[in-house]
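Key result, reporting period 2: structure in, sequence out.
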């Protein structure tokens, strides 16, 4: 998950000047085509290439390597299949989440003015080439709010039919990720099934443990792999069922998997009919 507070947005102009300019960046209003937005509604995700500069991804990896108990140049020290790092809010990380391309895409998918800029990420699953099962590769939906009796155990956190406190699931690729490099698996269209599962449970929703057991209804969905070059971001519907997998490649995979936090919660009844694509997907599933 990613916690985002009302803070000033990093000076992206300075960041792009330091990393060779804004080559490959579309102007605001052009990140996603109408076809891509409809793909998001139907399939539950859209891939954005060059969402942030490759040089920024390199700086993020440098920061994360300093926290890892292993040597980037010695594979013999990569003794675990996955290591999870905690919160980071250094400028390169904030820069990666606050490019004009991403801000424009957030506006297009969740509505202008309805989201908080991201200033930090709190979880980084770093995956290493390793023969052992990582132990965290089950199909699931990310939780978004705590139970009534607060706990830090995220297995007891919950999801409801309005995706309280989460607008998007986002996959930030900080390293080149091919099919052998433990790309996240995505069940295409599964967000619709999850919406229908959640409706009977109202505002309270379900814990992700309970929801994970019921998500077997999505087992027949086709699977896509979240591959791409460093700097790629996948913007996913918050109900999209996804899973990690073993790393069969040669180079560690660096990524973050935050959520986009609402300034305005998802609404499924709007007097003006101004529904975002995220809302349209839910409404279409439960109609």
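The corresponding designed sequence is given below.
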């Amino acid at each position: 998950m990613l916690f985002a507070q009302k803070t000033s947005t990093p000076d992206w102009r300075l960041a792009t000047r330091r990393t060779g300019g804004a080559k490959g960046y579309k102007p605001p209003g052009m990140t996603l085509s109408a076809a891509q937005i409809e793909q998001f509604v139907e399939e539950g995700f859209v891939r954005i290439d060059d969402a942030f500069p490759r040089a920024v991804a390199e700086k993020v990896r440098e920061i994360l390597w300093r926290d890892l108990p292993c040597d980037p140049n010695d594979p013999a020290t990569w003794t675990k299949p996955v290591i999870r790092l905690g919160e980071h809010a250094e400028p390169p990380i904030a820069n990666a989440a606050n490019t004009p391309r991403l801000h424009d895409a957030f506006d297009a998918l969740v509505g202008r003015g309805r989201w908080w800029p991201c200033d930090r990420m709190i979880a980084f699953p770093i995956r290493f080439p390793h023969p052992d099962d990582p132990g965290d590769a089950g199909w699931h939906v990310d939780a978004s709010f705590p139970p009534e009796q607060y706990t830090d155990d995220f297995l007891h956190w919950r999801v409801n039919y309005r995706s309280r406190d989460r607008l998007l699931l986002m996959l930030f690729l900080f390293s080149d990720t091919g099919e052998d490099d433990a790309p996240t698996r995505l069940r295409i269209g599964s967000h619709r099934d999850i919406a229908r599962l959640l409706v009977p449970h109202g505002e309270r929703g379900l814990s992700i443990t309970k929801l994970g057991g019921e998500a077997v209804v999505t087992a027949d969905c086709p699977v896509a792999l979240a591959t791409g070059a460093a700097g790629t971001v996948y913007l996913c519907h918050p109900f999209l069922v996804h899973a990690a997998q073993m790393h069969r490649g040669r180079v560690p995979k660096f990524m973050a998997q935050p959520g986009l936090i609402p300034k305005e919660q998802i609404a499924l009844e709007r007097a003006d009919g101004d529904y975002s694509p995220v809302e349209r997907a839910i409404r279409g599933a439960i109609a």
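The helical segments are 12-18, 34-43, 54-67, 91-97, 100-110, 190-198, 208-214, 277-286. The domain at 12-286 is CATH 2.60.120.620 (Jelly Rolls). This case is discussed further under Risks and Mitigation.
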